[in-house]
Amino acid sequence: MRHLILFTFTALLLLTSCDKKIYTNETPQEIVVEGWIDAGGYPIVMLSKSIPISSEWQSFENLDEYVIKWGKVTVSDGEKEVVLTGKYDSDYYPPYIYTTTEIQGVAGKKYKLMVSYNEFYAEAETTIPEIVELEAIYGTYSDNKYILKAKIDDNPNEHNYYKFFARVIDRDNMYLSSNIAVINDADYNFPAEIPIEIGSSMLYDKHLRDFVLTKEHSVRIKFAAIDSVAYTFWNDYKNVVEISRNSMFRYNNNIHSNIKGGLGYWFGYGATEYLCLSNKHNEPIKISR
Q1: How many CB atoms lie within 10 A of CB 173?
Q2: Where does residue 137 rank: exposed (0-12), middle (13-18), buried (19+ CB within 10 A)?
Q3: Does the pLDDT value for residue 248 go beyond 60?
Q4: pLDDT digit string, tens, across residues 27-63
Q5: Cα separation of 269 and 106, whole Å?
Q6: Max CA-CA distance within the chain?
Q7: Residue 114 half-sphere exposure, CB side, CA atoms within 13 Å?
Q8: Are strands 81-83 and 263-276 parallel, antiparallel or unpaired?
Q9: What is the chain's alpha carbon radius of gyration, rounded to the nearest angstrom?
Q10: Cα-flanking dihedrals φ and ψ of residue 269, to 5°?
Q11: What distance in Å separates the CA atoms of residue 7 and residue 164, rounded to the nearest whole number?
Q12: Which is nearest to 113 in space by CA: 41, 33, 175, 48?
């Protein structure tokens, strides 16, 4: 994860709380965790406080006041326990993360996250699934748009889940969730071709939210094997995003979280990354770690 921006989880809660009886009484503030660790990568964690849902008018002009910059974030791999360092990082928004190079993700291992800040304490566990690589990435035209499609093969003897993230070069500083992004292998006949729809951020100007991919763009693709817990979260997220676009419907179901004592997620990704160059969309280049 993505993989996302801070406040996404809180913002989605605001979008789904349309019933007056839900927000006539102010909801308690909670800690929001967005964290992940890739196979071969290092843990990335972002912390914030949720925006209380209230019937009173609230200004969200200064979201920085909800960012937690002095939390204690600890990750354990069962052999060693490391306190992550908080630092400024312009590749994320808000530009503040907790990370370390002392623990590196390994497929098959379990990782425990512990977070404390003032009265808040939250924890979660995740396992990094084994890596599954894409067979290929292709570019095709459909409805005057350039669509990237990934060819995936799958072990029929296993029940697997997958997730796509994408980052458009010169547009995005970080990976964003692909719109048609979460895959349950029980729903497909493999080998299969899956479209990779480029996502966008709620922070973008309108012309960027209406972005259309062309052959001139270069795109980085992150393909991750995920576990069933991460699949449930991302499937809930997808439903909220899709249904919230239609004012005729509302989505009141909670987004499932594996964070005990807070909101959000802590996931392990069996991830591989690919670079699709503007002049070589049919020849994906795997990014070395």
Answers
A1: 13
A2: buried
A3: no
A4: 788 999 999 999 999 999 999 998 776 656 555 556 7
A5: 10
A6: 55
A7: 7
A8: unpaired
A9: 19
A10: -120, 125
A11: 20
A12: 33
Residue type at 217?
A: H
Cα gap 255→263, rounded to integer Å: 9
Strand-strand pairing, 263-276 and 31-38: parallel
Q: Using an 8 Å Cβ cutoff, are 170 and 216 in contact?
A: no
**Per-residue model confidence (pLDDT) at position 200:** 73
Residues whose CB falls within 8 Å of the CB of residue 228, separated by 6 or more in sequence, listed in order: 161
Three-state SS at 235? helix
Give the per-residue pLDDT at 62.
Answer: 64
Under DSSP, the state recorded for 39 is B
Cβ count within 10 A of residue 176 = 24
| Token pair recorded at residue 191 | 């080998």
- What is the Cα–Cα distance from 289 to 269, expressed in whole angstroms? 14
What amino acid is encoded at 161 in this protein?
Answer: Y
**Model-level pTM?**
0.85
Residue whose pair of structure tokens reads 């009484």 in the numeric block: 25
Helix axis angle for 228-244 and 8-16, nearest 10°, is 50
Q: Nearest 5°: phi and psi at 206?
A: -55, -40
- How far apart (Å, rounded) are the C-alpha atoms in residues 15 and 127? 30
The CA distance from 193 to 140, in Å, is 12
